[in-house]
Specification:
The chain is 55% helix and 7% strand. It has 161 residues and is mainly α. It has one domain. Helix 2 (47-63) packs antiparallel against helix 3, helix 3 crosses helix 4 (84-94) and helix 5 (99-107) crosses helix 6 (109-121). The longest helix is centred in the N-terminal third of the chain and has 18 residues, at 3-20.
């Protein structure tokens, strides 16, 4: 539901994973500008955003990174982007993921536990999207492939040349 996050994911994170995925350990943390209270999160863009974050966290936990990455990419690309209840169902079915299981997770205790886990992994930030590399903030306007190639990978990596 966060337009800036959508743009950053599709225009920076997807190309990064496609280009350098075999050389890096990408960690996705669906939490954003939420605030975690004892009874659950409150998200910047409302309850539907909290549901989408929990659904994505459940997929990361239950389906593994590669399938969850495709799900998140699909949700951001969906015509139903503004309503994660619809985009999650559409994309789960399209990718042959178990929507019922993921939905139960997202709306249940497990989803709340995973949301708490994502909250604990979220660094202090001034805005979203907030990208870090090796714990250091990297401005969203920076080409992540170029940045990682120049600062972390050697010249022998084909994708960096």
């Amino acid at each position: 539901m966060c337009p800036g996050c959508r743009s950053h994911f599709l225009n920076s994170i997807v190309p990064l994973q496609e280009t350098l995925g075999q050389y890096i350990n990408l960690d996705l943390v669906p939490f954003g500008n939420a605030i975690l209270y004892s009874n659950g999160p409150r998200c910047q863009h409302g309850e539907l955003e909290c549901y989408g974050n929990a659904f994505q966290a459940c997929s990361l936990d239950m389906d593994g990174f590669d399938k969850a990455f495709k799900l998140i990419e699909c949700m951001f690309n969906s015509n139903y982007f503004g309503n994660p209840k619809y985009s999650s169902k559409q994309c789960s079915e399209q990718l042959n993921l178990n929507y019922q299981q993921l939905d139960s997770c997202a709306t249940g205790q497990k989803g709340l536990e995973l949301t708490r886990k994502m909250a604990s992994k979220t660094p202090r930030h001034n805005y979203v999207p907030w990208t870090t590399v090796q714990g250091r903030f990297v401005d969203g306007n920076v080409d992540l492939v170029e940045y990682i190639c120049e600062n972390y990978l050697d010249n022998n990596v084909q994708a960096c040349n």
